[in-house]
Amino acid sequence: MLTKTITLTQFLIEERRRFPQASGAFNSLVLGVALACKALSRKVAYGALIGLHGAVGEINVQGEAQQKLDVLANETFLHCLQWGGDLRGMLSEEMEDPWICEDTGGDYLLAFDPLDGSSNIDVNVSVGSIFSLIRAPAERKRATPADFLRPGSEQVAAGYAIYGPTTMFVLTVGRGVFGFTLDPEIGEFLLTHPNMTIPAQTREFAINASNSRFWEPPIRRYVEEALAGSKGPREKDFNMRWIASLVAEAHRILTRGGVFMYPRDTKDPTKPGRLRLLYECNPIGMLVEQAGGRASTGSGPVLQVKPEAPHQRIGFVFGSREEVERIERYHAEGPVPSEEDTPLFNVMSGLFRRGA
Ligand code: MN
Ligand code: MN
Fold it and tell me: Residue 280: nearest ligand to its CA?
């Protein structure tokens, strides 16, 4: 089996051959992340057997109840990555201030969500880890939190691990998206999903509908049109999915298409969106774009956003290209004209009523 299969290490070496000027630091970093994910995969699998379920009783920097596995996952990432000398700093969802390396020899900065979807741990639904790698500033100085505030278009690598029925590591180094499955017998990630691509169209969307009263009008319009199904303006029936775990949603969309929306809403004026730009939206956004999909704030490309704070939240819409472009178009078009001034709408809604 091994003779036919490419390991993550082999894949990275092959990639590096295309860039003879590249140092080994990049590969060793990606392998460091993969090592942390392998370690976590084992811990997650033991769950309640080793007392890892449940909350710590602390509220993290995000104002969320920290789970025991959140803390362990963060420590695992730090432990696997801080000794190599290739990183000048690490930004984590679980730490208010980034970890900064005293040695300024490292060329990279890493941002990560050590355990995504951690509220799903106790119910045994897939969780994951997400990471984003950018270059550190050329000047050899101690990193600062501001150094992490680079647009997602500058990422040199991004990926996630998903701890589901199988553990997978999904990676982009800027030349497509590749999925590796952990072979538990040999402890290696093996390439099983080369060139993952997202179909341009879909009949599947994912959104937390309990927030619908807080949605912006363009999102409301998009969802209402999808719900109207084959008799509505979209002239096709849609399915809805909602796992409430970003990694699991992203993995489904990278596997079979779809559109995911966690739009900016009016629920809490202090939170312009739910998901974090630097270690959730940007890495997932890079993967999605590398797979031929589109990643957006709802109104424009998420990878072009200039970050303002390390733990910044933002609206996030991603998936099948044509659907995300449609949502952006609805934002650009502004409010839908009211019934009175659109004769066409009257005709259409008459049709709906007859159809219903
Ligand atoms: Mn998360
Ligand atoms: Mn998390």
Answer: 1
What's the pLDDT tens digit per position in 72-87?
A: 999 999 999 999 899 9
278 and 312 Cβ atoms separated by less than 8 Å? yes
User: Does residue 337 carry a pLDDT above 80?
Assistant: no
- According to CATH, the topology of domain 204-347 is D-Maltodextrin-Binding Protein; domain 2 (3.40.190)
CA 296 to chain centre: 12
Determine the angle formed by the axes of helices 282-290 and 246-256, rounding to 10 degrees. Answer: 10
Distance 280 CA to ligand 1 centre (A): 6
Domain 3-193, architecture per CATH? 2-Layer Sandwich (3.30)
Radius of gyration of the chain from its Cα atoms, rounded to whole angstroms: 21
Return d(Cα 272, Cα 178) in angstroms, integer. 32
* Cα 199 to ligand 2 centroid, rounded to whole Å: 28
pLDDT digits (tens, 9 = 90+) for 224-262: 999 999 999 999 999 999 999 999 999 999 999 999 999
Tell me the two tokens of residue 66: 């920290």
The answer to whether residues 87 and 109 touch, using CB atoms and an 8 Å cutoff, is: yes
pTM of the model: 0.91
Which ligand approaches the C-alpha of residue 275 most closely? Answer: 1
Length of the chain: 356
Residue with tokens 């956003």: 305
